Structures are given as structure tokens and as C-alpha cells.
Amino acid sequence: MKRIKIIFNQIKMNITKNIKKVKKEHLIRTYIKNNKLFLSFVFICIINSTVLRFFCMHSLENYLSWRAILADSVIVTLVGSFGYLLKPKNRFIYYFCFCIFFSAICMINSVYYTFYTSFASISMLSLTQYIGDVGDAVVENVLQIKDLFYVIGPIALFLIHLKLKKKNYYKKVEMKTIRKKKTFKSLSITGVLLLLFLLTLSPLDVSRFFKQWNKEYIVMRFGIYVYQTNDLFTSIQPKINSMFGYDKANKKFQDYFKNKEPSATNEYTNIFKDKNVIVIHGESMMTNAIGLKFNDQEVTPTLNKLSSEGMFFSNFYSQVSVGTSSDSELTYNTSLMPTKSGTAFVSYSDRKYIGIPTLLKEKGYYTFSMHANNADFWNRRAMHKNLGYDRFFSKTDYNVTKENTIGLGLSDKEFFHQSVEKIERINSEHEKWYGLLIMLTNHTPFSEIEKYGEFPVDMKETITKEDGTTEEKVYPYMEGTKLGNYFKSLHYADEALGEFIQELEAKGLLENTVFILYGDHDARLSRKDYNLLYNYDKETDDVLDKEDPEYKEYDSYQYELGRKVPFIIWTKDMNNTKLNFENKNVMGMYDVSPTLGNMFGFYNKYRLGHDIFDIKENNIVIFPTGNWVNNKMYYNSQKSAYFPLSEEPITEEEINYNTEYTNQLLDISNDIISFDLLNEKKDQEREGE
Ligand code: GP9
Ligand code: MN
Fold first, then answer.
1. Rounded to whole angstroms, how far apart are CA atoms 115 and 110?
2. For a disulfide at 331, which of 23, 390, 553, 589, Cβ 3.0-4.6 Å?
3. Is the peptide bond before 644 cis (omega within 30 degrees of 0)?
4. pTM above 0.70, yes or no
5. What does the DSSP 8-state code read for residue 569?
6. CA-nearest residue, atom 10 of ligand 1
7. What is the pLDDT of residue 625?
8. Residue 599 and residue 591 in contact, taking contact as beta carbons nearer than 8 Å
9. C-alpha dihedral (477, 483, 485, 488), degrees to nearest 10
10. pLDDT band at residue 26, thresholds of 50, 70 and 90?
11. Residue 139 has pLDDT above 80, yes or no
């Protein structure tokens, strides 16, 4: 009897389960049946976006990135939901127009990707004037069969519409309340999808999303529709910002520069006039590695040589904000500071800048830049033109293979090697030239240690035993730490630089050339790792105890001061001359243009920095955070506290004066860029209004 009861209960449970399942299936089937047009629209748009990723970025991870599909669904269902507000007979035209719009986004990006290996931006619309010149070439060389795929979507939607029409799908009468209910229902689906998507985001995703320059990453992670919507906002934001307060900003700007004159001549004026120039943008190169050794092996033999034979500015600071590499390029070239929001290279690429290449071109120089990464990284394609480079050699000008790639792209050794013949050609074609080479390998996360070559960062000790025999003891020290890996990577980059100089020398390209090197920013490593570097305890393989007499304090100030980057000016025959010295006065990236200007004979009136040989020990370096440093102290404006750097007494007046000066400079710099104050044409236009 009991058994029968159990069997009976089981059958009952099965039946209810099945009924529930059938009900659920019925519900889904009814939903599909009633929402065929909406679902077809959503499906077509998602397929288009997925196919775009498939055509552009060939890895399975990209084709079927479910996160991107989720993000696409959010945008498409959001737009689709509002279709329900219309009467059924008008709905098709709504979906059809948006289907064409979304398909066009995919098609434009597909074509753009073939041409530029990057994705399109609304801000590039200002470049449409050039389309006439390249239009035919685009049709002949760039438009490919694959780009026509996106036409299929709207055609399919139209055919579905005809079928639905035949079946009287649009004949239903829907009251306003029903339509609102349907809209709400679809919006709820969007809400759930959005929530799911937000849960998948990491802090890195969010930061890249707001910076918007790593376009491939955003499209892969957020899908093309979110990318394009975000691009729309980042493109119009600067326009909105610059609509208000022009007059006030312009007055402040005019007042500040009214009495600015070129600095007086000094013993370095025109010393390098008409010489060729090679500038090295040293990715993540830091001053604290110069002279550092592990087991008697120098981390940076090349930098050590250049700094000891040339002019070495050992208290030099990069002044970057969120735009890292691009900010250092901006400040190096223009003597302006990074913008307060967004990045100048991405958000304000249509403004006028006075770059070093522009000024040298006026002196008859041919100017070029070289970087074996994607030309759109940090929007360099547009900005290098704007800064005055005649030619930008980027990834497509180099032979990049899987074998010669490390980290972000072409290895530095290959990059330099392939650049030499280009420089040789330029040298034979132009009387004088100025070239920038942007390094890449020594970039965070410094994880491809097997590709950097042998460079142990452990600690070895030879111990003599009682019986007179010796034994080598090895302590792990920096091995396995991020800072240790950074030194390995930096050692590689330094070696690449050394080989480059040798190749240039062998080709006779150093004869009349000034070699300039700057570190673009610090390596963004943790303070804990530096503590280990300076306070290693062999006994415990850990950091020394704070009470230990050998313990060296490395607090947040030392950390900030330790973020210094090298700035070196070197020529092959400078050693042991009066041009061979270490300058210890604080100096910032914004002092480079005025300092080089004095040496090479160019002048930018609208500079915020100074010729270091003019201002000497009175210099001050400001940071985008509002902090500043001079020879006497480092001041942290957030903490309203300072760290003394000399014995001299410090007064409150000078702190207030310098803090105000810092804020004034940051404001003026930001106004110059956002209001485009260096653009005389705009000024005339405004006066004419
Ligand atoms: C990219 C390279 C790195 O091309 O310049 O930029 P970063 O991440 O250092 O700003
Ligand atoms: Mn960088």
C-alpha cells in the first residue's frame, strides 16, 4: 500500500512538473508569436555586431564574447522597446529605420577597420573634408564583399515584415494601455540584461570604458553599439564644456602671457642649432634604476652610459594624468599640462597646439615619429599630425609577426632595428631632421619574463666555510615580485636601446645628431615592492623590521619622489666636455620645450615651463593633482602637508604662493586646450560675430 502511495505521489509530481514545463513553453511560444517583429529586429542587430567582431578581431574569444552580446542586447532591446509605443501598423517602419541605422554602424566600422585597424569615431567627422581625396581609393581598395553582409539584415527584416503582413499580424488593434504595458515589459527585460552585464564588469573595464581610447578592447568587451554611444558622448562633451566662460578664460590667458618674453640668452643658447635630433620616448623608464645593480650586473648599462657621458637631469618628473603616454607626449611637445577631464589626445584632438615639430619645421626641419603600435592608440594618428610631424610611421610600416612580438606589440629590439633603415633613408633625403621613437616593450604588466632574456634579480653571496672551501648562497630577493619583473623588462629595453645606438653609429647616423631621451611616466608599481628592494632581510626573505638600524624609510613621500623619470641629452662626443654634467635642479616635462628651444633656436611664447638653464634652482614642477615640488620641498595639496628636501626654512607664505601658482597654471592650461585659445582663427571668428 505504502509503495503504491509513493508511486502515485511520484506520478503526481511528474505530471505537475510537466504541466509547469508545458505552461512555460507555451508562455515562451506565445511571447515569440506575439513579438516576432521586435525579436527579429533584436536578433538581426546582435548578429550584425557579432559578425563585425568576427571579421575584425580574429579570436574565438572575440567572436563569441557573451559579454559583448549581452551589452549589444541591452542597447538593442532598449531601442526596440520604444517601438511598442507605436500602433502595430506603424511599428515596422520604426524597426526598419533602426535596423538600417545599426547595420550602417556595423558597415562603417567594418570598412573603417580594414582601412585603419581601429573603430570609427564621431569626432573624426571633422576629417570628412579629406574623404573627397581618398573616396575612390576607399571604394576600390577598402570596400570588400564582407562589408556587404550588413545589408542582409534590413532585407531580412523587410521579408519578415511581408510575411507577417500576409498573416494579418498588423491588423490587431492595441489600446494605448496595452502598448504601454508591452513597452514596460520590454524595458524590464532590458533592465535585467543591463544588471547582468554590470555584474560582469571589472575596474579595468570601467576605466578603459571612460578613457575610450583602447577601442578594440571596448568593442570586444562592450560591443559596437555601446562603443559608438559612448563615443558620441565623449566627442560632444568637450564641445559642451567649451561653450561657457570663453571671455573670462581668454582674458586670464591674455593677462598671463602679456608680458612673457623669451628667456635671456645663456651659455647653452643655440648650441645645437641645425643638428639632427633623435628623441626616445622611454616607456615606463624610471630614474631609480639608473646605477642599480644585481649581483654586480647593471640593470641599465645603456642609460648609465648616456647619463654619465651627457647632460643628465636627475630630478626630472613626468607630469601625466590619466592619459599616461599621451599626456607625456603632450607636455613634452607643448609645455602645457594634461586636461582636467578626459585626455587632450582623445577629447581635444581638434584644438591648436604648438608642438616642437611645428616649430622646427619653421626652421627647415623634416619631422617624423615612429611607433610600431596601432596608429589610433591614444589617437596618435590625428594628434601627431596636429603636433607637426610630417610623417608618422606606425604598425603598418613595420613587419610585425607573432615571433617578434612582446607584450603590447613589436619588440623594442625589432622596432629599433627596423627603424634604422627608415632613418637612413630620411637622412639621405633631408638636410636636417627631427624624429621621435616611442618604445613599447617595457610596459606594464611586465609579465613576459621568458622573452626578456636572462637577468636574475636575486641576491648571491659567496660564503667561505671553516675548512676554507667556498659555497654560493642564493637569496630570492626581488625574484617573483612585480618590481623584479620590471627590472628584467627594463634591462631588455635598455639592451634594445644600446643595440640601436650601435646600429646608428655603424651607419654614421650619430655624426651630427643629438640624442634625447625621456622616461614617459613611472611604472606604477606598489610601494611594498620598493620597500623590499631597499630593506631586504636575507634571514627572513622579507622586509627588515622597522626597528632595525638598517631599515630605510620609504613612505608615501619617498614613493612620490621616487617616481622620477630620466631626462638625458647626449651626443657621441660630449663625454668629458663642459656639456657633460648632472643637473640636480627639479625639472618637469613642461620645461623640455623651453629648454630645447634655447638650445636649438625655436621659441614658443605660450609655454608654462621654463628653460632650466634660465630658472635654475628657482624652478617648480607642478602635477595635475595640484601637488608640486621644488628644490626645497614636495607639497601634497590633498593632505596639505609637505616633505622637506633641504635644510632651508620653509614659510607658510611660500607654500600658499606656490599652491596658488600651481592652480593658476593648471587652470590656464586647461582653458587653453578646452577653449582652443591658441587658435587665432577662432579668435577672429568670435570677434567677427
Ligand atoms: C601605447 C603605448 C602605451 O601605444 O604608448 O601607452 P600607456 O599605456 O603607457 O599610456
Ligand atoms: Mn607609457
1. 9
2. 589
3. no
4. yes
5. E
6. 325
7. 87
8. no
9. -90
10. confident
11. no
According to DSSP, the residues that pair with 433 across neighbouring strands are 366
Q: Report pLDDT digits (tens) over 631-669.
A: 999 999 877 899 999 999 999 999 999 999 999 999 999
Cα distance between residue 460 and residue 475, in whole Å: 6
Torsion angle, alpha carbons of 370, 374, 376, 381, to 10:
30
Q: From ligand 1's centre to the CA of 487, what distance in Å?
A: 18
440 CA: nearest ligand 1 atom: 2
pLDDT at residue 130 in the model:
36
- Cell numbers 592650461 correspond to 669
Is the peptide bond preceding residue 262 cis, with omega within 30 degrees of 0? no
Residues 86 and 93: their CA atoms lie apart, in Å, by 10
pLDDT at 637: 84
Query: Average pLDDT in the 186-211 region?
Result: 89
Quote the Cα angle for 254-255-259, to 5°.
100
Mutate to test the pocket of ligand 1, among 408, 415, 486, 524 (most ligand atoms within 8 A of CB): 408
For the record, the C-alpha cell of 448 comes out as 613576459
Check: CB of residue 461 under 8 Å from CB of residue 422.
Answer: no
CA dihedral 75, 77, 78, 79 (to 10 degrees): 90
Handedness of CA 227, 229, 232, 233 (dihedral sign): negative
Q: Give the start-to-end residue ranges of the domains of the chain.
A: 35-225, 246-688
Q: State residue 19's pLDDT score.
A: 56
153: Cβ–Cβ under 8 A, 6 or more apart, which residues? 44, 45, 47, 48, 99, 102, 103
> What is the tens place of the pLDDT at every residue in 369-404?
999 998 988 899 999 999 999 999 999 999 999 999
pLDDT at residue 143 tops 90? no
Helices 652-674 and 246-258 pack at an angle, to 10 degrees, of: 120
**pLDDT at residue 23, as a whole number:** 64
Residue with cell 634571514: 539
Is the pLDDT assigned to residue 623 strictly greater than 90?
A: yes
In whole angstroms, how far apart are CA 581 and each of 47, 389, 609? 63, 31, 21
How far is ligand 1, taken at its centre, from the CA of residue 324, in Å? 7
- What is the rounded average pLDDT of the residues 437-446? 95
**Nearest-CA residue for atom 9 of ligand 1:** 325
- Collapsing DSSP to helix, strand or coil, 525 comes out as coil
Could you name the CATH architecture of 246-688? 3-Layer(aba) Sandwich (3.40)
Q: What is the pLDDT of residue 127?
A: 43
Cell of 580: 657633460
Q: Which residues pair with 392 in a beta bridge?
A: 369
In the structure grid, which three cell numbers stand for residue 596, read together?
630645447
At residue 210, the pLDDT reads: 76
Ligand 1 in contact with 377 (CB < 6 A)? Answer: yes
Centroid of chain to Cα 455: 29
Strands 433-438 and 366-370: parallel
| Set of cell numbers at residue 350 | 581638434
Residue of minimum CA distance from atom 3 in ligand 1: 325
- Does 301 score more than 90 pLDDT? yes
